[in-house]
Amino acid sequence: MKKDIQNIAIVRLSALGDIVNSAFVLQFIKAAYPHAKISWIVEESFSDILSSAKYLDTITSINLKALKHDKSFARLKSEIAKLKTDTEYDIVIDMQGLIKSAVVARILGKNTHGFDKNSTREGVAALLYRTKTAIPYEENVILRNAKVVSDALGIAITEDIIQNKEAVFEATKEFLLQKEKANVAFVIGASWPSKIYPKEQIAQVCAALDVEAHIIWGNEAELREAEWIVANTQNATLAPKCNLRELVSFISHMDLLIGNDTGPTHIAWAQNIPSITLLGPTTERMIGKTSQNVGVKSPSKVNLLKIDKNDYSIKDIKPQNIIKKAKELLHGV
Fold first, then answer.
1. Please, which pLDDT band fits residue 2 given cuts at 50, 70 and 90?
2. Residue 104 included in any domain
3. What are the Cα distances from residue 323, in Å, to 161, 201, 282, 298?
4. First-last CA distance in the chain
5. Pair 127, 208 in one domain
6. I need a surface site. Which of 39, 234, 314, 323 has the fewest CB within 10 A?
7. pLDDT at residue 3, as a whole number
8. What does the alpha-carbon distance between residue 167 and residue 270 come to, in Å, rounded to a whole number?
């Protein structure tokens, strides 16, 4: 263990699910370095999720996505200026492994650590790290995140330790839910259409379970889908409109969450809530797997180095398979 580490910076800019699947490392860093201050650099649109993360001292939000539309030097200078602080970081850990995240890490300090050239899709990023981690890109994302932090800080974050983690985020809001039946949340949205399980099949799953089904939605399109499910299912209700902090609290009150491969579904794993992740064009590599957090994969084969966003095989997952797994997790049968 490196006793002289006082200031640690983590770079994980996006996206929501990846940030959720990275934030679990905070508790293990703090256990090893209780007096160190931990900072996180994140895209502005995802900073709210980190505001309830335990053991995180500071958050720096930047808006690199805006550079896609405003490529002016003034905009670039403005975003870089946000990274300039009086803090001298003893180590900067890039958990993302992209060129843009590596550049951010290098601006923050010289002692940078990240994935080596064979362990990430943008191998040239490794040129900007002082020290590097070698781990197959095909390895589970949770184990990859644990490994890069373990190597950077000289601490052990093993599978057994991760299995016994505490909840990653603070649940700061109470929700009044009925207690006669299990409360099951359904996450119906996703970043790609091909990752979305059809609403008709979600309705079948809801109807087959003797539970109170809460349909989570995040935008107007998802609201319309959620309203259709509620209108066609006797035991489904709309989840309340939530910001990211409130969503963490809402999911933390559930007995089970069923959802697509997307950020809100990963929150269940982070909060130690049982979950079923539905996978079409992606694989179980993307989830935290435990006896209580499982994936149900469509029949399609996936090339991790070239994800096929036109793979709509998620619709081929039989509702009966999800229903069976849900009953096992809820009742042990």
1. low
2. yes
3. 30, 11, 21, 15
4. 45
5. no
6. 234
7. 58
8. 6
CA dihedral 291, 190, 10, 106 (to 10 degrees): 140
Q: What's the CA gap between 133 and 117, in Å, rounded?
A: 9
Q: Give yes or no for residue 1 having a pLDDT over 60.
A: no
Q: Does 316 reside within a domain?
A: yes
8 A C-beta contact, residue 46 and residue 14: yes
Rounded Cα–Cα distance for residues 314 and 278 (Å):
7
How many domains does one find in the chain? 2
162, 143, 197: which is closest to 269 by C-alpha?
162
Domain, as residue range, for 62: 7-163
Say if residue 16 is in the same domain as residue 152: yes
197/308 same-domain check = yes
Asked whether residue 174 is domain-assigned, the answer is no
Where is pLDDT greater, at 230 or 67? Answer: 230
pLDDT per position as a tens digit, 5-20: 999 999 999 999 999 9
Tally of CA atoms within 13 A in the half-sphere of 191 that contains its CB: 13
Average pLDDT over the chain, rounded to whole? 95
